[in-house]
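@channel sequence for tomorrow's demo:
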Amino acid sequence: MKKNRILLLMVILPTIFLLACDAPRQRRIVPLVSGEDSSYRDNGSTVTVSPTPTPTSTIPNNLKNCGFAASSSESSKFVQSAHLGGYKVCRPDSSSDTIYIQFQYPVSSNNGNKNICLFPTTSSTSGTVYIGEARCINVSAAYDIYPITMLRNRTNYSSYSMSGLMIMLDAPYYYTRFYSYVQSPDAYLFCMQWIDQSCSLGRCDSSYCDSFKSGAHYVYTSI
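structure tokens (generated this afternoon):
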């Protein structure tokens, strides 16, 4: 057991360190670790740090019913989160994969990284399941409204409807099951891939996802 744990650390830690110290990325593939079969990977195993879409500082007519805040006097319209501060998400067209998000404050982490990542999810009997890779943007202005078109490109899940979002900073946090600091989007994707693989082998192992959840470095919102 101890030997396997040491081997796991030797494989995952150098890769995570390189990811955390890398320059701004366009596409990041979550690393494999010892014991994971690459054949279980799918198109949703990536984090896309795309160019931040041009936000609007005024509320467009088609978003008037979203309840976005027009000024600081309407701060009560935001959902408050310890992880992100005040935020508001709207999906005005349920048939579209485009969502709009607004923040009460510029989003930053303890290392100055302002990238925020969003995963599209669908509901299942066991909770929520991600159905596509993350879209990551840089949020540098309060009250601006950002349009983001989500991707439903996870193998075998692309036909599922989007019913929620997992939202988190693209920043490193310590996760006990990983025995290291890991970028939150990477930790989330890895835990989901790991539990899928272990369940397919008849021994569901939720320990990585349990560690991710206990860290609480994310918010979930239905849309």
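heads up for whoever presents: Helices lie at 2-21, 184-200, 207-215.
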